[in-house]
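Why does residue order matter? Because the sequence determines the fold. Keep that principle in mind as you read this record.
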Amino acid sequence: MRNLWPEWPRVRSLIATQRRVLFLLDFDGTLAPLAGRHDEAVLPEAIRSLLSSLQGRPRAGVAILSGRSLSDLRSRIGLPALYYCGNHGLEIEGPGISFRHVEALSLKPVMQGAAVRIAGDLARVPGAVLENKELTLSVHYRRVPRAALGPLRKLRARLQIETSARPIRWGAGRKVWELVPEVPWHKGAASRYLMRCLRDPFPIALGDDTTDEDVFAALGGKGVAIRIGRPRASKADYYLGSQAQVARFLREAGAALDEAV
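Structure:
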């Protein structure tokens, strides 16, 4: 994985020669800086303006893929012409597209039953927050005091055992545990679905967390995959040093699209 900017002239030329480009963008930690609480995340106005500008270009489409619910994602961004993939891609809305994963919908009662069970236990852990997104759940522990982390991990181990007989998959992100229905779907599958619907555009993916690795893998060597930050291992082609560099990338990518094919 290489630093994007020394390679930018080559990547810029690659973008400029595409007839159609689809940006596949994560929200938290990519478009919006990470916040102390999940409900405090705010999309910078400069990023919102750049997204609107990209979507307005005839050769570009913009998709936002997030673990957040679809309604939460749309309300935080507020640009109706974009494609929104909420709940890790289990629900997708955008121009000409309306998708809900049928099997995940059928497992909604299972997820809600787990939510009731987990909420009771988490109420005894200071700083822990359960985010109920109907189709999926998130346990946020960024504000859990250090002294309570050990008991929280033991609680997770017990809850994993208790839910092991149910069709629920546990995952981890940045100071968050994700509970999703056990179905063959994730951000990568949602990305492939969008690309099929949009007739195989050239994909450009940006993300900062483990769930974004599914998107990078889904590109299958086609397109450009960019990780925010530099982890020890990633399926991305390039990395940006920090979330603060995302605005520059979107601006430069838009300029590349303005060049003649």
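The chain has two domains: 2-101+185-257, 105-181.
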